[in-house]
Amino acid sequence: MSDETLEDKTGVLSLMDTTEDLAEYKKLQWEGSFNDYLQMVQENPAITRNAFQRLYDMVLSYGVREYDDAKKEIIHYNFFDDPTTGGKEAIYGLDIPLMKMMNVFKAAAKGYGPEKRILLLHGPVGSSKSTIVRLLKRGTERYSRTEEGALYTFEWTGLKEAGIDDDDVMPCPMHEDPLNLVPEKRRKEVAEKLSKEEFTIDIDQFLCPYCNLIYEELAKKYDGNQPEILKHVRVKRFTILERSRRGIGTFQPKDEKNQDSTELTGDINYRKIAEYGDEFDPRAFNFKGEFEIANRGLMEFIEVLKLDVAFLYDLLGATQDHDIKPKGFAQTSIDEAIIGHTNEAEFKKLQSNEFMEALQDRTIKIDIPYITKTEEEVKIYERAYRSQPGMHIAPHAREMAALWVVLTRLWEPKKLELTVLQKAKLYDGKHIHGFNEDHIKELRKEAPREGLEGISPRYIQDIISNSMVTEKASECLAPFLLLNELEAGLKNHSSIKTERERKRYGELIAIVKQEFEDTVKGEVQRAISADQEALAKVCANYIDQIKAYTQKEKVKNKYTGENEAPDERLMRSIEEKIDIPEVRKDVFRTELMTHIGGLAHEGQSFDYQTDERLRKAIELKLFEDQKDSIKLTSLVSAVIDKETQEKIDVVKQRLIDKMGYCEICATDVLNFVASIFARGDASEES
Ligand SMILES: Nc1ncnc2c1ncn2[C@@H]1O[C@H](COP(=O)(O)OP(=O)(O)OP(=O)(O)O)[C@@H](O)[C@H]1O
Ligand SMILES: [Mg+2]
């Protein structure tokens, strides 16, 4: 190799080869004797934790945050923020279901019973069940590489020499804990000796068929001399990695003909039968079924309820007794968390299927519903879809889609006088006059299945991504366009079951459109009156007027240069904004002038922004003026004079600079709000 090929021109090679990584690699390659392992266990008995204890501790290791929501104490597990990837697969808005799930894990870790059940994540399609399991799998992998989550297994050495196997070194095919080598009758004493107050060791697994055979063969060879047998044992660190088939198994039902139980519990190695002369020799068996692969870690059952009945008993044994039955062998211990997931439709089928009754009885169902808070739902779309060069996403587009999808999931309030939109806002933490947290509790209580029905986030994702690439959106995805696409898509949405439902979802679109109108109206108003210069001008003018008024002088008209009486109409139009009655106007004006005079006396100038009431009055006045003088409504007509256009452009620029709009959506929104004002709605606003 020439120096040229080794030179790290990009700087990437050195990134990939750091001393840190080397140090980690070394640690993970740790090997030692059985005796070394015993010493480590004595020091830290928790390295013998079972799969559920590890799973629970793994999640906890990321820390928690506690808070109150509608008078309920919530524990948020930071693990589900997916911090290691910067939140790529973070789960939003499901703290309560995740808390329930964690309570099941906790009980299983403590050995209270759930460890003998199939944990079934159940919910409507697209509610993040697979994502949750994926996070747990990745977390389990990472944890096994940390100091805190380290776990160990062993391999046999010197087998060929001893005439027991053709391979000299053979790892335990099920990567068991080395403590499983402790003979049954000594287990209790050994466990007591190695346990500590903070962790009690329980050796309750039996050696797998292969290791059992090797153990017996070596015992024969050494007349049962334990130290001699254990000399053939090399303890190693075990790291879990799904893609290398270590410690994580998955099973997905396919069509029945292509599937048999060997997939779960392993298969005969025909090549080796000839050698050992017996198909029931564990040396001629591949312990590579999913249950065996998953030992020490996690077993995922995708769509577990579609499982063929033929596999049911394997699954039941695995959960209930932590045993599997590889073909031709005795019951074999396994230590793994078994998590299945299924959607609502399949679950309903199960309920009416007698055959599955045994399964149902051994299942702990954990509901994973849809999000019912808009501000959480919107995070899914904000994460997946961002403005890019050439494709801007208009403000409120994702938010309005999220609001709609949440509305499809909510039940109409029954007892309280509340619209479903108001309910959504309450859930979202917004203030609705006359309602408080007790009402939220009541609303949640009267709708127990809320979140298990409605539209899936996938539908929104599909429509957004489709809209972003079609011509329609051109360079900016606007909320109205998105809402229209969502509405149009309802016609052939496959999971909508009834016409009534379809109609209701359509009506909810109309509600969201109205909400959008109100939102942008407020936003444009703010953009219009956010002009500091104009505000200062209105204020200066007002002060000139009241100064002349209180001193009984005349004011010079800027344009004509003539002296005129103070403009009473103008002064009142400002004062009325903050409800100063006619009879109090003199007091108000005098007080203000006294204050300004006092400041001037000390060499200071007056800043209207320090006067809360006056500032509000000025802002409202400016908006009122601008609305007319900017003549936003003239956007609706075809002709616009230059001056108006300039003023409108200033507002537009403000929308672009300060409020996340682009040229296209700022123009659209101004036209849209202009048309609302033209309809006369504006009069309600001031
Ligand atoms: N609460 C949530 N937080 C973050 N993302 C979510 C949430 N709910 C759904 N998603 C997103 O929706 C999509 C579907 O999620 P996922 O595939 O995990 O659902 P699922 O429940 O397994 O669905 P199915 O029942 O169809 O298998 C993913 O892109 C996921 O990130
Ligand atoms: Mg899924």
Structure notes:
Residues 681-686 have low confidence and may be disordered. Helices cover 48% and strands 10% of the residues. The chain is elongated, with a radius of gyration of 36 Å. The protein is built from 29 helices and 19 strands. It binds adenosine-5'-triphosphate and magnesium ion (MG). Adenosine-5'-triphosphate is lined by residues 91-94, 123, 125-131, 343, 371, 380, 457-458.
Give a short synopsis of this structure.
The chain is an alpha/beta fold and about 675 residues long. Strand 2 (about 65-70) and strand 3 (about 70-75) form a beta hairpin.
Percent helix: 40-55%
Structural class: alpha/beta
Bound small molecules, deduplicated: adenosine-5'-triphosphate, magnesium ion
Question: What gap, in angstroms, lies between the N and C termini?
Answer: 78 Å
Entry keywords:
686 residues, alpha/beta, five-stranded parallel β-sheet, 29 helices, 48% helix, 10% strand, elongated, disordered C terminus, binds adenosine-5'-triphosphate, binds magnesium ion
Topology of this protein?
Elements: H1 3-6, H2 12-16, H3 19-28, E1 31-33, H4 34-43, H5 51-60, E2 64-69, E3 72-77, H6 95-109, E4 118-123, H7 129-144, E5 151-156, E6 170-171, H8 187-194, H9 209-221, H10 226-230, E7 233-238, E8 248-251, H11 262-265, E9 267-268, H12 270-276, E10 285-286, H13 290-293, E11 298-302, H14 309-320, E12 323-324, E13 332-333, E14 337-343, H15 344-351, H16 357-361, E15 363-367, H17 374-384, E16 392-393, H18 397-409, H19 420-427, H20 437-446, H21 457-469, E17 476-477, H22 479-489, H23 499-529, H24 532-550, E18 555-556, E19 563-564, H25 568-575, H26 585-601, H27 612-631, H28 642-658, H29 663-678
Parallel strand pairs: 4-14, 4-15, 8-11, 11-14, 16-17
Antiparallel strand pairs: 1-7, 2-3, 5-6, 5-7, 9-10, 12-13, 18-19
Helix pairs in contact: 5-6, 5-7, 17-18, 18-22, 18-23, 21-22, 22-23, 23-27, 23-29, 24-26, 24-27, 28-29
Bound molecules: adenosine-5'-triphosphate (ATP) and magnesium ion.
